[in-house]
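Figure 2 data, in text form.
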Amino acid sequence: MTFSICVRESCGDHDRFGVAVTTRMPGIGDLSPFVSQDGAVAIQGHVTGALGPQIIELLADDYHLDDVVRTVLNPEVDPENRQIHGVDRHGTTTYTGEACNDWSGHLAGADYSVAGNLLESGEVLDAMADSYEDSDRRERLAKRLIDALEAGEEAGGDHRDLDIQSAALRVFDPEAPLGDSYYNDLRTNATWTPLADLREQYELGVRGRKIVAERYDWD
């Protein structure tokens, strides 16, 4: 009951991973976006918080995400109602169960994937993909992930009429500066304006990181 984007970016001798998600329900930050030095994954549909940590743990053991998703989608976890997508060092993986509510689907690009269910239409995913592909790599990934979510919302987003909404993003970059979590690990758990709130948190995080860096002489 959400839409999201997962990204891998090669940065010379290391990889940066990011994931961002929004939904017309509260608390998505605890359930859907998962990221580590090995990949980024979004869990959607009939969400269970157990699948994400399990996938990240298996990625740490050097399993490919494609194999991991097939492993965790066993009959006991109701795979028909699940939606999982993400990216690791080996490529993108997308899965949408047959019982996910319309409109549901996914797209995979070069080192990124987008997916959603209960959407206004497939144009939501097209807009997110276009936003990311056209983004300026010189800008922070967190900002560009929010841009992609906003593009999806402008294209129709989640079609349900529910007031209490949420959004979250996580970025993992082993070469990021001290204090990057100020703007790379954000969530709005219950709000009427999740994406506007997420962008405000991002902008305040960037500003706060700059203030702290100047005060404590961070590089």
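Caption note: The chain has a mean pLDDT of 94.
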